[in-house]
Amino acid sequence: EVRALVFDLDGVITDTAEYHYLSWKRVTDEEGLPFSREDNMTMLGVSRRESLLRLMKMKDLSLSEEAMVEWMHRKNEYFKPYLENLSTADLMPGIMAFIEEARTTTDYKLGVASSSRNAKAVIKKLGLNHLFEVVGDAYTVANAKPSPDVFIWVAGALRVPMREVIVFEDARAGIEAAHIAGCASVGIGSTGLEEADLTVPTLEGLHVADVVEQVIRQRSL
Ligand code: G16
Ligand code: MG
């Protein structure tokens, strides 16, 4: 039985994944480091610190704790103006229709599980608060995705067993976290989603009942 749908924020509800990339790109440009979209894929969906640790590993960099804090601060300073200008144009295609359909045609509980410290600000800025019963973010748990903690926390707050939750994610780290938590998963996008129970390029034009049915079928295979 499915009783809850839990959505990732950056890259699933909003197009902010692009802004995270552009912000890291600006920092790496300033530091004279090459940084491609492909590089960025390996940092998707994990915490700010874990993103930097992965970047350091990728580029064989060693930074002091002080330098790391400064890079993370700078990245977020570059990210913040994007948030100030956030509008409904930054919503992912099809997401609002999908959530609206879930609200009107099902009694699934709806939640958000994000690795971001900016998650609540993004949701507020877009006026989406009323859509979700629970929002878990980088402040609610100590360990960000791929740790399962945020999904366990959100499922608990929704009072739904983990196996009755379908998670919607755009990042490998999020799919991994969802599975460790015992949730089912839908990967949205084209890269790094091989482990998802169902992968779709976008939610645009998809119906909740069809997606849920496909996930259930996939899981019992
Ligand atoms: C998001 C992004 C990640 C980002 C993380 C931390 O997670 O996908 O790329 O590194 O938040 O963001 P911040 O620097 O705002 O704390 P999610 O889980 O919403 O995709
Ligand atoms: Mg994401």
Structural account:
Belongs to the HAD-like hydrolase superfamily. CbbY/CbbZ/Gph/YieH family. The active site is at 8 (nucleophile), 10 (proton donor/acceptor). Keywords: Isomerase, Magnesium, Metal-binding. GO terms for molecular function: beta-phosphoglucomutase activity; magnesium ion binding; sugar-phosphatase activity. This is Beta-phosphoglucomutase. This protein is α/β, with parallel strands linked by helices and 221 residues long. It has helices at residues 16-30, 37-41, 48-58, 65-84, 95-105, 119-125, 149-158, 172-181, 208-219; strands at residues 4-7, 109-113, 134-136, 165-169, 184-188, 198-200. It has a 6-stranded parallel beta sheet with strand order 3-2-1-4-5-6, with helices on both faces. α6 links the parallel β2 (109-113) and β3 (134-136). The model has no long low-confidence stretch (mean pLDDT 96). The structure holds 1,6-di-O-phosphono-alpha-D-glucopyranose (G16) and magnesium ion. Magnesium ion (MG) binds next to loops.
User: What does the average pLDDT come to?
Assistant: 96
Count of helix runs:
9
Biggest sheet features: 6 strands, parallel
Give the strand tally: 6
Strand order of the largest sheet: 3-2-1-4-5-6
State the end-to-end CA separation. Answer: 15 Å
Helix content percent band: 40-55%
Name the bound molecules.
1,6-di-O-phosphono-alpha-D-glucopyranose, magnesium ion
Rg estimate, integer Å: 17 Å
Principal-axes geometry comes out as globular
Helix and strand pattern? EHHHHHEHEHEHEEH
Determine the structural class based on helices, strands and strand pairing: alpha/beta
| Beta-strand percentage range | 5-15%
Low-confidence stretches: none
